[in-house]
Amino acid sequence: MTAIVQTKGLEKRYGEVHAVRGVSFEIAAGSCIGLLGPNGAGKTTTMRMLLGLTRPSAGDVRVFGAPIAALGRGFRTRIGLVPQDDNLDPDLSVRQNLEVYGRYFGIPAGTLATRVPQLLAFMQLEERGAAKVMQLSGGMKRRLIIARSLIADPELIVLDEPTTGLDPQARVLIWRRLLDLKRQGKTLLLTTHYMDEAQRLCDRIIVIDGGRVLDEGTPRELIARHVAGHVFEIAKPVPADLLPEGLEREDIGDSLLVYTADPHALRDRLPAEIEYVHRVANLEDVFLRLTGRRLREA
Ligand SMILES: Nc1ncnc2c1ncn2[C@@H]1O[C@H](COP(=O)(O)OP(=O)(O)OP(=O)(O)O)[C@@H](O)[C@H]1O
Ligand SMILES: [Mg+2]
After folding, report:
1. pLDDT of residue 297
2. 27, 191 in Cβ contact below 8 A?
3. Which ligand 1 atom lies nearest to the CA of residue 54?
4. Which residues of the chain have pLDDT under 70?
């Protein structure tokens, strides 16, 4: 495996706040990795350390096989960044936002003249090139920030919540484009609070909370490991002897969640008068199981 990113024991302290507490992972070239975690888990801080935007308090980061300090300024053109917050220039047009960014990265004017319209078309913004950023909808701004992240044709693209707050149509377009980028051989690192999105796009998932990695694997591995593959949501009260020993269960108030790898066996045990819903387990089940159902301060 060629690792595009390697982190080892990465930590970040902001005074009293220990935001990242020893995060280690690798990202294989050409893969899409999802960094998932509740608000305040340390996702953005981790990403910023990979980009050299925040200095780690401890631990190592290697990008493209070398420590960031050894890479020089030029390495920034090899990474595209979609930050969590919109930092477009509101006074410039859509096209100018891309051009200014391109010039900042030292891309020749001739290259920009062909790349800017290509990127606008890629993100379905070709009609909007002359519009001012402040005239764009939230979804258009997000698409423009993604287009901007691609201006230097980077090998690694880091996307911090690229689809938060967007309507389903805009999300689907962005998913298609991210899959296109993967097919072109790009490496993607993404955060999202939409578990369906992570399941659809990511080859591997890293779940973090409280600045630590809770688990890592393919979506399928994580589902099998933590929620057995199938979920039964059984209305309470559930008779004490109804469920076989050894099945993981979780009380969520009005009902009991029971996780099983053998849904037929469990269904056969449930009497007709018991109300339940059976469904295939998904990454959201894994996420809630690993990080809990308690509401976080954002
Ligand atoms: N510049 C900073 N100064 C002080 N504390 C910070 C700073 N940046 C982040 N933190 C704190 O570090 C912790 C992790 O924040 P971070 O932004 O990495 O979380 P996140 O996983 O990206 O959350 P979200 O899903 O809300 O974006 C939080 O407790 C946050 O308040
Ligand atoms: Mg964040």
Report:
1. 65
2. no
3. 1
4. 297-298
User: Domain check: are 196 and 246 in the same one?
Assistant: no
Nearest CA to ligand 1 atom 10: 19
Atom 17 of ligand 1: nearest residue by CA position: 44
In this structure, the number of other CB atoms found within 10 A of the CB of residue 164 comes to 14
Which of 190, 207, 223 finishes a domain?
A: 223
Q: Return d(Cα 228, Cα 287) in angstroms, integer.
A: 13
C-alpha 254: how far from its chain's center? 31
Domain around 80: 3-223
What residue's CA is closest to ligand 1, atom 1? 14
Q: Give me the residue label for tokens 């369906």.
A: 196
In this predicted model, what pLDDT tens digit does every residue of 74-114 receive, in sequence order? 888 999 999 999 999 999 999 999 999 999 999 999 999 99
Q: Which of 271, 209, 205, 213 shows the shortest CA–CA distance to 238?
A: 271
Instruction: Kindly state if the Cβ of 17 falls inside 6 Å of ligand 1.
Output: yes
Tell me, what amino acid is at 85?
D
296 lines ligand 1 (CB under 6 A): no
Residues 265, 117 share a domain = no
Q: How much of the chain, in percent, has pLDDT values that exceed 70?
A: 99
Q: Contact, 42 vs 12, CB < 8 A?
A: yes
**Of the bound ligands, which one is closest to the alpha carbon of residue 21?**
1
Q: Looking at the 3D structure of the chain, how many domains does it have?
A: 2
**What CATH number has the domain bearing residue 174?**
3.40.50.300
Ligand 1 pocket test, candidate residues 35, 44, 158, 295, most atoms within 8 A of CB: 44
Say yes or no: CB of residue 14 within 6 Å of ligand 1: yes
Q: Is the peptide bond before 263 cis (omega within 30 degrees of 0)?
A: no
Same domain? 197 vs 246: no
The answer to whether the CB of 19 is under 6 A from ligand 1 is: yes
